[in-house]
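Hey team,

Filing this mostly as a record. A colleague (T.K.) asked me to run one chain through the structure pipeline before their review meeting, and I want the input and output archived in the tracker in case anyone asks later how it was produced. No errors, nothing strange. Just documentation.

Input sequence:
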Amino acid sequence: MKFRKVLAAVAAAAVAVSMTAINAFAAVTLDSEYPGAWGASKTIPKTEFEAIGGDVKVVLTVETKDPLIGQHNHLAKPMNICVSWDAITDSLTSDTAIAKGDGFFVFAEGQTTLEFVVPESVWQSFKGYVDDEGNEDESAGLAFQVCDVIIKSADLSAGSAQGDIRRVDEAQSSDIMDGMSYEEATGAAPAAADDTASAEVDEAPAADEAPAADEAPAATTDAAPAATTDAPAPAVTTTAAATGNTAVASIAVVMAVAGAAAIAAKKRK
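Output structure:
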């Protein structure tokens, strides 16, 4: 009987952990068709954010489209739709997203994804429509005002704050839509390249002059690889934490503890 109770406890724990893993992810289907220029997309429900908890990373799957007349204008503005259509872009963070001063995200021609993080304090502020009697419905959530973009779906997972969203003006946004990178459109790339080049030039003479001393070449050779080897370290990310591996490890621990308990139960008999 005791052994059966142990197995039942293990099964219950495994189910609980697996359910936790499922709740840490959400895939929300949004628009299959274009809602029209400056129309509103379907809403990512607040309940999906609540199921994950904390800061939530959102990865949109999008399709850019060309207008029937005129030039393309690939834009989408995040908004707490049941409160107002005002942009909430300033409240979000992203290391990759680009937005205009009016809060519209800018999409390059052919871009298929957009990633940003919604802080817990922001999604907690999402409200549903309130009727005349003061009752709030379940329509609360995150939506987007779009132009020449179809927001097809959104993947939600546990996230953490990223950097400030990069801003561009009208001319720069047009260049990005036409295929330029942010650095090319804003002129940031040449400055970064010049700084790197000057740093390499400054270090080069030291390497050339080093052979004047017998021991200097060895010191120079050892130092250079160390800098090269250490450089990739900042590229480490925490995306793996959102894959569900932590939950699998938790199940393994539960199973191991249960096994030990089963052996102990047999010994008691």
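Quick notes for T.K.: The chain has a mean pLDDT of 76. Helices lie at 2-23, 46-52, 120-123, 170-177, 182-186, 188-209, 216-230, 245-268.
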